[in-house]
Amino acid sequence: MWTYDKKLQYPVKIARPNAAMAKVIITQFGGPDGELAASQRYLSQRYSAPYDEAKAILTDIGTSVPK
């Protein structure tokens, strides 16, 4: 089970824009092999899972945050 708390884990301080770093971040986040696509696959598979335990595991994986 998880709860949603809308706050940042670390404070964000941007000194100056960096287009090259932004490009690297967006490819990891939004590409077909990125984190967002992977989490959406897990969350969509939970709706067709036959067992409640499998649904719970897929939900936990799809909503987990790497530490």
UniProtKB/TrEMBL annotation:
The keyword Manganese applies. Mn(2+) binds at E35. One of its GO terms (molecular function) is metal ion binding. Keywords: Calcium, Manganese, Metal-binding. Ca(2+) binds at D60. Its cofactor is Mn(2+); Ca(2+). It comes from the Bacteria. The keyword Cell inner membrane does not apply. Binds 2 manganese ions per subunit. Belongs to the manganese catalase family. This is Manganese catalase family protein. It comes from Zongyangia hominis.
